[in-house]
Amino acid sequence: MSRELIVLVVGAMAVYALVLGAHALRRRLGLAPFYALLGGLTAVMSWVSDAGVKVEVSGLTFRTGSAVFYTALLLGVFAIYVFDGPRATRGAIATIVAISALTPLLAAGLLFQSHLAGLPPSPFVPLPDLRLNAASVLTSVVDLLFLAVAWELLGDPRRQVRLWLRLLLTLLGVMTLDVILFHTLAFAGRPGYLAQLAGTLVSRGLVALFTFPFLYLYVRDQNRRLGGGFEHRPILAIVGQVAEMRRELDHAQREIERRVLAERQNQDLFDQLQQALTEVKTLRGILPICVHCKKIRDQKGYLRQVETYMSRHPEAEFSHGICPDCARELYPGLKSDEPPEG
Fold this sequence. Notes:
Layout: H1 3-24, H2 26-29, H3 32-51, E1 54-57, E2 60-63, H4 64-116, H5 130-154, H6 163-187, H7 193-226, H8 242-283, E3 287-290, E4 296-297, E5 303-304, H9 306-312, E6 318-321, H10 324-330
Helix pairs in contact: 1-4, 1-7, 3-4, 4-5, 4-7, 5-6, 6-7
């Protein structure tokens, strides 16, 4: 193994670990540092790609910009989409696309400034290729959108695709699309286009196989730490608000159900309190009952038949007395201030 290939492999492993490690810290630090890292790697990728840094191994060409830095960006977007959803992923894609577009413009500005100052072009500022950079920006957008679509398509519960196969097929699909689209946009019509395309397909396939264990171990570890399975979203959730709208509607429905239940419980409690208050008022004190005719004087002073009162207030307690009618009948000379029978 050549020294250049060893450096490429070690560098790729370090950058992959850096991206996935930064994503793992998002719950402590938030997503801002992760976005900043993606932006920095995008700038380095554009710089290295314009400089044409590459490694030749057994007739295969491994471009540092795509094999190391762009693959790391794919891993980062993959992780943020799987665990943080379409909204966070759109932020990552916007960061990558914006930096991809601004970096060659910055390089062109620096070179133009050197020209105006009469200085020779700096070897550290590569001359940007407009066609290559435009192809890179467009391909990046399509790749990252395709990544989300392929992940959801393979994640359909009806297909029952195992996690490792789902990850591998998604990664291979994105790599293949990237090579075909980028080379077609950047090099179609130039000599050796087809041979270069075929060779790059092989090299990027090897990169995908090399990258897969990093992605698989990270996704499995994060899923175990966070608990639960993977959310199955609409296939085009990454390009619209479908997933957010569905979650918001589900949340609103749950909130309405919670409030209706709380209102029902409050009403039941209110009814129970009303009933308890009525019973307390009913049972407060001892009710007089006539020892002769058995009529009862209620709280309003009216005399009721015992059967009528008991049917309404079975918990009441009684004391013995005598009603005015019975007092007049039994004790004609006794004056009574009792209210009349009602």
